Amino acid sequence: MNKLGVESENAAANFLKKNGYKIIARNYAVQTGEVDIIASQGGLLKQKTLVFIEVKGRAYKAYGGPLAAVTKAKQNKIISAATIYVKENFPKFDSIRFDVVTVVDGKIEHIENAFIPQRGTL
């Protein structure tokens, strides 16, 4: 991973922690895909959500910005890795969500429910 990628993932992880997320894993990779950050949100009195997060960083906004880089093919790889993670770890969560965190020139944007897997995938 390049320097910008590492810095973007670190910034995203810190942002998520400051906003109440618990980081469970980073750079979870399997043969069919990879997830940058796996986190949990909520708990105790709130619904507990398992969140799979793709981080996209850019030095500047170009080519449609970083969110445009999360193509359908990339989404499918993330969903594939998430499916394996859930099967291997049997996490106890009320729901699962797929988010994207973009980091452009130091500015962080968190897009919740950035994409939704096809029914029956997870």
TrEMBL record:
Database matches in PANTHER family: UPF0102 PROTEIN YRAN (PTHR34039)
Highest rank taxon of the organism: Bacteria
Name under which the protein is recorded: UPF0102 protein Emin_0629
Single GO molecular function: nucleic acid binding
SUPFAM superfamilies per the UniProt record, alphabetical: Restriction endonuclease-like
One matching Pfam family: UPF0102
Family assignment from sequence similarity: Belongs to the UPF0102 family.
